[in-house]
Amino acid sequence: TFKKAERINSLPQQFFASLTGKVQEVMKQGHDVINLGQGNPDQPTPPHIVDAMIKAVNSPDNHKYSPFRGLDSFKEAISVFYKREYGVDIDPQEEVAVLFGGKAGLVELPQCLLNPGETVLVPDPGYPDYLSGVSLAEARMVTMPLIEENQFLPDYGDITLEEREKAKLMFLNYPNNPTGAVASRTFFEETAAFAKNHGICVVHDFAYGAIGFDGKKPVSFLEADGAKDTGIEIYTLSKTYNMAGWRVGFAVGNKSVIDAINILQDHMYVSLFGAVQEAAVEALLGSQNCVEELVASYESRRKTFINGLREIGWDVKAPAGSFFAWLKVPEGFSSVEFSDFLLEEVNVAVAPGVGFGEYGEGYVRAGLLTSEERLSEAVKRIENLKLFDK
Ligand code: PLP
């Protein structure tokens, strides 16, 4: 046995691994678990994208190393996609970095921009992998609380002058995992102005960029004036096109940041499988009906689940975007106690809010990633616990 490097020992606990372990244990005992604890999209990749992949796999050019920094056709498709969806101009050569999914980019970024000990602003609650990148870069984290009274947006006024001056990088994510909140263009304008004033690079994680409800399309950070001077956006095909297993995404925005990502990646990889990139071109430029259908399916699930919970007396808020419901736990339980209770008593798995940070305490996260029948069944099981007054 070899001793692990300190940087491996220092990585935060993978909290989804322990959740999955608990769920599997209950399943092994023969129980039918409704698993709303994970973030894995349940629907298949649309067939026209799969077909494009199959065709591309048969092309011998794709059997070789694909070009460093990605296929031109993919980078050009990204530029067309951003113009079409958000009205934002992106230079395909200098303002795009191809990524092995959003997660890779998010974890790489602190290593690209920070020296050990430098400060990063991280939302709390937030996607746990931001912390992994910060830890690998040996950077220092300052949390920005996301609370319901502020619509789960950070209040920059709360960040002390000293911390503002020290901060080099800030993570943001709207539509938000885990709270389901969305951000307005005005908020992004404020963010860009704040970041510019203090020389902070904004990394906006737009993983749920396609998933907004009530007819409201989520806003890209890059739509804000001057956004490209202050940061980048990370986009992934995982959620928009149900391609989580394909590992394909990209970063767009500030040239110097894109350059840093590309340099790091030149040393780590060559690039994504060319056939995956060709399929991604089909996803971005082909028919977008599949995206409309996907959003409609989540919207319908949201209605079934949220209305169902309200009918049994649980006072819950509907998410404005993403595919997560962020539910306040009943009095008397911590988030871990409540998620354990639901799993053990009625075999419904949800993620405890504290797994997303200290400010996630008091909530659990439920993913709308199963059929409406199963979501209704989950509501019925919770009703049987008689926790709420109707
Ligand atoms: N960012 C957020 C907020 C997420 O929830 C996820 C996936 O669950 C990702 C990024 C990473 O997605 P991927 O690595 O599949 O692109």
How would you characterize this protein structure?
With 390 residues, the protein is α/β, with parallel strands linked by helices. The protein has two domains: 6-45 and 289-384, Alpha-Beta Complex (Aspartate Aminotransferase, domain 1), CATH 3.90.1150.10; 47-285, Aspartate Aminotransferase, domain 2, CATH 3.40.640. It is built from 15 helices and twelve strands. It has helices at 6-9, 15-28, 47-57, 72-86, 101-113, 129-136, 161-166, 185-198, 227-230, 237-240, 255-268, 274-285, 289-311, 335-346, 372-384; strands at 34-35, 96-99, 119-124, 140-145, 167-173, 201-205, 231-236, 249-253, 324-328, 348-349, 351-352, 363-367. The protein has a seven-stranded mixed beta sheet with strand order 2-8-7-6-5-3-4, with helices on both faces. A three-stranded antiparallel beta sheet has the order 9-12-11. Helix 9 links the parallel strand 6 (201-205) and strand 7 (231-236). Helix 3 packs antiparallel against helix 12 and helix 13 runs parallel beside helix 15. The longest helix has 23 residues, at 289-311. The protein is globular. The model has no long low-confidence stretch (mean pLDDT 96). Pyridoxal-5'-phosphate binds at residues 39, 101-103, 127, 173, 177, 205, 207, 236, 238, 244, 249.
